[in-house]
Design brief:
Chain lengths: 428, 428
Amino acid sequence: MNIRFYNARILTMVEGQEIFDGELWVEGSRITYVGEAKSEEEISKVSGRFTRCIDCRGNLLMPGFKDAHTHSGMTLMRTYADGLPLQEWLETKIFPLEAKMSGEDCALLTKLAILEYLTSGITAIMDMYLSPEDIATACEETGMRVVQVSGINKFGPSLEVFEERFLKLNDRHPLSSYKMGFHAEYTCDKELLMKLSDLAHKYKAPMYTHNSETVREVKECVDRYQMTPTVFLDSLGLFDYGGGGYHCCHMTDEDIEVFKKHNMSVVTNPGSNTKLASGIAPVARFLEEGINVAIGTDGPSSNNCLDMFREMFLVTGLAKLREKDASVVSGMEVLKMATVGGARAMDIMDCDVLASGKEADIIMIDLMQPNMQPINDIANNLVYSGSKQNVKMTMIHGKILYEDGKFNIGISPADIYKGASMIQKRLF
Amino acid sequence: MNIRFYNARILTMVEGQEIFDGELWVEGSRITYVGEAKSEEEISKVSGRFTRCIDCRGNLLMPGFKDAHTHSGMTLMRTYADGLPLQEWLETKIFPLEAKMSGEDCALLTKLAILEYLTSGITAIMDMYLSPEDIATACEETGMRVVQVSGINKFGPSLEVFEERFLKLNDRHPLSSYKMGFHAEYTCDKELLMKLSDLAHKYKAPMYTHNSETVREVKECVDRYQMTPTVFLDSLGLFDYGGGGYHCCHMTDEDIEVFKKHNMSVVTNPGSNTKLASGIAPVARFLEEGINVAIGTDGPSSNNCLDMFREMFLVTGLAKLREKDASVVSGMEVLKMATVGGARAMDIMDCDVLASGKEADIIMIDLMQPNMQPINDIANNLVYSGSKQNVKMTMIHGKILYEDGKFNIGISPADIYKGASMIQKRLF
């Protein structure tokens, strides 16, 4: 399906480019034109190329949001165990339940998450969870773009199984890829991490992990190895090909140097860090230091929703509170994290901005809602006032998957809700 | 119009009452029945009384949210001056622009805010802004419930004008009342405050004000009077008939004692306090001390949206961060603040819960959205995962003003947006 969007405001997120009025063409999975409105004469020449023309009525087109850290299948545990700190929550509630989940469960629960991502304009996710094959299938079937990350830990499958998956799940589908990662320092022993480092070197692969999320995690690592998690993991060579850290709330100057040295990304998760009382990441400092910052919702059991608008407000709001300075981290800086920063962290640079030749991962923002009026600084308004309600359309890989509240992902929401409810009845 | 809601889940917010399946009747402006589903025989006897029967399909009915502190007319300044700390923002940006606003402007801009309140399930507001008569008219025309508070300050109208308004604006319409208040300690001199205290005593009236919002405000008051704002204002007898404080981020033990002694309410404004880097209010402590806590969005220039869902997540999230404890301030405690606590702070106890004889200020929450699935702990989920997108219907005083994205307030959103844009062009 080839689509022409006209009468649009367009925020390309190309560095230095302001919002402008114009039009955008999608042919196949790619953007073939972004720019000023074409004349009637020009349009008459090309109109046969389009199967649908959408009058945007002054609404905004922009790149879809990248949710750079999540655990989609945890939709099952939404409000299952609220009010607990991270470690207790994981060990007493989450791990025992996860042990009972099947691959099929995981696929269905991932589809439930995908519905929610689409309502929030999220067009790509970096997902770390059980049953990677089933997650890949769920994303491919529905049309969601996914970068999976292995959550290797001392309880889980062997490195041999992982290496096989790594080879199998990359290049199997244009929407789906698989990165090296481990759950966290505190769920891996040193020997496992050393072997994983060897694999990273073998494939020259970047490495991703939960990092310095809580004070307790950092303290226990220092007790164990006399190094912070970042420095300890780096000492094993795990970050020699870059990668990223999720959370990064409690970072020393030395930790920050490690991230800079290896050109690593921080993925900040303010909703989860707030709900679990983990702390506030020094995002203003990361920006000052030139570190790439992306945003993740984390999973729906620790957040509990998968909403980039909530995260965007929290990224800047918590930075302001932390630094006691209302001027830090502007709306545009946050939008950059949620789009370009995410694409860079996830290594999907084909999807970062709206430009000819790029993947058509596009959202339309409804500006004709009261929270966007009167129209003034649209970029700031998206971050400070935007909500799911403003997402009129979500397109991934050239296909509209969500439009005016309706989904087009090959399965009905009602069937997904019914499936999730049945899993809940079986496992709770 | 008399309406029967059936097939509903119902959260009455009556103390100790759990969510149950049942039905609810509205006749005129009042609730006439809330309880279990009636039998077909019983229904056949009463069905002639209803002009409309709404099948809720398992969705949730609950009391509307009370936004206990806002400045509606500031919709004009949404994203007008982001990134500034409170005092600079007020003095260099907001006050000069407000000086140019007419009463008619204020009414139109209030209607713009009302659209947004309705999308977020807010059924009553406590509004402090310019042109009280015009605000009252805007609310009465659209059907919004409003408790206005005077924002007396040393630059504004005289106390004689205020007293006249106080007498005129109370009892003029069932949706509208007017309370005594002043802007803040730092915008009033002592003589003015003493005269206002006399008026509070004359009418035995509770008193409301911005209180201890920033460190600077508290410090300057201590420098001036060797007392914190709360203690200083109390020393003038301003709180002898109770009332409330907006913000209350920086409170001493002595301040808390003043609030307890006079049975005053704290209205917490976490979105605004975050965006302006003002600080985090000690909400967990307020609850421990038995102080009534309500929630306000503050105005759309400092927040920048009017969304009770954002505020509810922030109330508990920021409390967890402040106390470094994920267990403080439960979802149900937050819902209580947003409904019953608000009604108590605003002195509209007829609208606090769903019960026979109460005002029909009711919202319907769409549970058939991905962020509410699978259905588990609904109360927690509203607070941790709810969004404007879940508001299917907003009813005030027995009238449905918002339903499935459509407004019924006697003026179209398009006309309001056009009006706001014209004001913007004239004044910016």
